[in-house]
Every structure is written in structure tokens, then in C-alpha cells.
Amino acid sequence: MKKSYLMTPGPTPIPEEIRLEMAKPIIHHRTKEYQAIFKDATEGLKKIFKTSNDIYTFTSSGTGAMEASITNVLSPGDKIIVVRGGKFGERFSEIAGAYGVNVVNIDIEWGTSPEPEAIKEVLKKNPDAKGVYTTLCETSTATVYDIKLIGEIVRATNALFVVDVISGLGADDFENDAWGVDIAICGSQKGLMIPPGLAFSSVSQKAWKAVETSKLPKFYFNFKKYKKAYLNTDTPFTSAITLVIGLKRAVETINMEGIDKVIARHKKLALAVREAANAIGLEIFSKSPSSAVTAVNAPKGIDADNIIKLLKTEFGVTFAGGQENLKGKIFRVAHMGGIDEEHTLESIKALEQALAKLGYKFKQGAALAAAEKALTPT
Ligand SMILES: *Cc1c(COP(=O)(O)O)cnc(C)c1O
Q1: Residues 69 and 196 placed together within one structural domain of the fold
Q2: How far is the CA of 368 from the centre of ligand 1 (A)?
Q3: In the listed set 257, 275, 300, which residue is the last one of a domain according to the structure?
């Protein structure tokens, strides 16, 4: 079978030892055996989030936990502030709108990160805002936001600080507690190296106060139900047993290496791709590039989607495209989770060949050499 390289920002490749773990016969979830697995998985996740807060596990894609971060702490007519710099910032606004929450959007140019001072200003003008909703890595533009600095600003107010870390966790620096994050939202199919289907939410004491008074409708994603079950190392509904078994193994793998080392490795892969692109005259789209995923501008006159198509059909390499107004303009290469140096170098090799086939003029081999250099241990 021809090798294939899944280089998309979710789903990401799943290491063999995790796949095999999930292939074992299923067990029942209301058992001591499963409880021990669920506990280990949750405790392991807390180390990766760098939090001592509870982390609840939902059976849903990441968006389920995004919705929960709105329905569990707000009431109809409440006001929140949302940073919109891409598809995922937009999603918070859309969910809030669906529930009758008033949204003050901070619209920033795609590919840039928000100025902490701008958030401070908007908070000052809207002292009644119940929360600031933002993203660690805005995956659609491959941009990392300065969550630490924003956290210092939000912490001094009554507003909750809600951060979508779905793609950034395990790739970009993140410290839930030290950075004052009240609710961090994650999903299973990116840096955590398991299939789609689980979503996670950390919940701080400050957030719990808001949960007590929240009046928005909720049933499946009700934090109170999850907390009650959590105290008994349980979930309120049937656990996604197989995925949680995979999660336990995945967080063990991450924590064995150490989360800081895992992040350092992602930074190196991201640097290698940026250096490779630059070496053949391609520009990086983001002004604040993430280490979870890199967006590269397609060369003038070449549609990024044609590069992606050729990579897929002829080289077995899957890159992601751009969304909305970035469609055809950028291609996105992920660094998350199980993506390693081999995947990255093979993808760059294939990219060079695809670009040459599409008529782009550059010094062949230069991208690969630059990536290899960036990956050389110092
Ligand atoms: C992938 C992703 C999501 C979640 O999307 P789902 O398809 O619901 O899992 C949300 N936010 C960001 C930043 C993401 O990268």
C-alpha cells in the first residue's frame, strides 16, 4: 500500500499504539475497570492543560464544548465579547446569537492576533460583559493569540475568560491556571491524537459562580450533570468508552515525553515548514504563526486548491485549504499530534514536486534542505 500522509489540522494521524489500544474488546462503562481508565485519562489531561480545575469530557466534536461554554454560564440577553479573526472566532458569535446572547465582536484582520489593549478598551466600554471568548490558535488562519496577556486583562474584571484551545493544545504554549482561563475548550482529533468524537471543558471556580445563575436552556451539555457524575469518576450519559481508552493512552504518551517537550517539538516542525516555504519564495500567511498549523500563501497565478489536489492524488499527501475568502489562496500544513519529522519532510518533498509540475519556478531541493536544517538537533 502506498504511504499516505495526513497533514490536516484535524483529524490528525493516530499513532499505532493508540489505535491498537482502541481495537481491544469493549468493556462496560459502569465498572471499576473503566472508572480507573477514565480517571487516569482525566488526570493526564489536567497536566496537559496545566490546570487543577475539573475537566469534563463530552461525547461530541469540539463545537459541542464551545456551545456548552455559552449555555452553562449565560442567561438570555447577557452580553459577551468575542474576538473574530477567522472561522472559529465567528463560531462563538454564531452560537451566542442562536441563544439570544448579545455579542460585541472585536473584528480583526484574518491572520493577525488581537491587541490586548483593544480588548481592554472594549471591556472598559462594556463593563456589563459577562465573558471574553477567544481562541488559542485560530486554525482557519493558522494564527496564535497572546492568551497570557489577554488573560491578565480579563482576570481583573468580572468577565469570564473562555478560550478555545482545540487546535492549539499540545502545540502552542498554554497554561490554563497561570493565565487565568475560566473555561478552556478542547477536542480529541487534533493534538491529542485520537479520532474525532470527544470534547473537553475545564471549568474554574469563577465560572462555577456563573453556572449557578445561568438561565440559558441546556440538557445534554449541562455542567452540573457532569460535575455530579465527575465526583464519582463517571459521566452522566454513556461514555464514548473506546475513545476514552484511546485518550488514556494518548495522554500517557504525551506526559511521558512531557508537555513542554511536546510543544518544543511542534515549534520545531512549524519552524521547518516556514523555513522550507521561505526558501522557495513562498510567504507565510499569518503575522503571528501558530505551531499547530502553518498557512502558506500559494504562489501568484497558482490556485492553492490545485496544489492540494495534486498532492493528494499523486503523492498521498493531504493538506488543508483556505476557507471563505482564503479559498484557493492558502494551503495549510499541520504539525499536531502524531505528525512527525518524516511526515513533514515527505510532505515538503511532495510539495516541491507538485509546485514544479504546476509551473512554479524555484530552486528545487531548497525547501527540503531548509527544513532538514531547521530540524537538525542543535
Ligand atoms: C477544529 C476546531 C474546532 C472544532 O471543530 P469540531 O469540528 O466541532 O471538532 C473548534 N475550534 C478550533 C480552533 C478548531 O481548530
Answers
A1: yes
A2: 30
A3: 257
Pocket test for ligand 1, best of 67, 94, 144, 164 (most atoms within 8 A of CB): 164
The pLDDT-based confidence of 3 (bands split at 50, 70, 90) is confident
- Domain of residue 97: give its range: 16-257
Pocket-forming residues, ligand 1, beta carbon under 6 Å? 9-10, 61-63, 88, 135, 139, 164, 166-167, 187
Q: Across all residues in the chain, what is the average pLDDT?
A: 97
Residues 226 and 297 placed together within one structural domain of the fold: no
Whether the CB-CB separation of 165 and 174 falls below 8 Å is answered with yes
Please list, in sequence order, all residues whose beta carbon lies within 8 angstroms of the beta carbon of residue 314, skipping any fewer than 6 positions away: 350, 353, 354
CA dist 207 and 228 (Å) reads: 16
What's the total number of domains in the chain? 2
pLDDT tens string 200-253: 999 999 999 999 999 999 999 999 999 999 999 999 999 999 999 999 999 999
CA of 208 to the centre of ligand 1 (A): 24
pLDDT exceeds 60 at position 318: yes
CATH number (domain holding residue 271): 3.90.1150.10
Helix (H) or strand (E) holding 351: helix 341-357
What is the reported pLDDT for 1?
56
Our mutation pick for probing the ligand 1 site, out of 8, 61, 90, counting the most ligand atoms within 8 A of Cβ, is: 61
